[in-house]
Design a protein that fits this description.
By secondary structure, the protein is of the alpha+beta class. 35% of the residues lie in helices and 25% in strands. It has helices at residues 2-42, 134-137, 179-202, 204-208, and strands at residues 48-54, 60-62, 72-77, 83-93, 98-106, 111-119, 143-144, 159-161, 171-173.
């Protein structure tokens, strides 16, 4: 009986590994497709995209393939090849699990101009309002991320505030009934923009140089 149980266990483990290996390319392909669709959502008006990777000297360069996780961004261009903005991935702890999001940054407006949830396990009917609530999503149509004069950081950090109390363009109005999840989004974008926006603005000329090649 013991040998039979061990044999069955080994067989089940082998089947799990083979199934995982067999489905991994499909999973990656589906994730890549979902990401591409999200980029077009968070950067209104774009027709083409280009992947850039952050180098050791804090300069960006175009890359082929996926690039290194945590160091890539996605530049978007309109139908005439004009540089429009950059899509950035970010993540952080939500109420139930890690939230993965994508947001669009317009360097000319110095604003976040789009937002999309890539991965969420928040409570259906409550936490998942971060993906559906029109009022909450409107926070990210023109969220102010203006830089200081020396461009070393944001003039005002993005912060989440209690529902109905937003007074400044850099504040994220949270959702009643989904406070933890919506506050988490505000904090994730706040931390991400503090890191990425100075780098993106500094390198906007690099992204624009690709206009003629798109």
């Amino acid at each position: 009986m013991l040998r039979a149980m061990v044999g069955i266990g080994i067989l089940c483990a082998l089947m799990i590994v083979l199934t995982f290996q067999g489905t991994l390319p499909i999973i990656k392909e589906k994730k890549a497709e979902a990401l591409e669709k999200a980029i077009f959502k968070v950067l209104p008006g774009i027709e083409k995209t280009e992947i850039f990777q952050l180098g050791e000297s804090n300069n960006f360069a175009p890359v082929n393939g996926e690039g290194e996780e945590g160091r890539v961004v996605y530049a978007g261009y309109d139908e005439n090849g004009r540089f429009v903005g950059v899509a950035v991935e970010a993540s952080g702890q939500g109420y139930a699990d890690i939230l993965r999001i994508l947001y669009g940054y317009d360097p000319e407006k110095q604003a976040v101009v789009g937002f999309y949830v890539l991965e969420s396990k928040e409570t259906p009917g409550l936490g998942d309002k971060i993906e559906k609530d029109a009022g909450f999503l409107s926070n990210f149509e023109a969220l102010d991320v203006t830089l200081k004069e020396d461009q070393s950081g944001l003039r005002n950090a993005v912060v989440p505030v209690k529902s109905g109390t937003k007074e400044q363009p850099w504040e994220v109005d949270c959702i009643t009934g989904a406070t933890i999840s919506s506050r988490a989004i505000g904090n994730i974008i706040g931390a991400s923009t503090e890191r990425w926006v100075p780098l993106l603005h500094k390198n906007k000329g690099t992204f624009a140089k690709q206009e003629g090649e798109n």
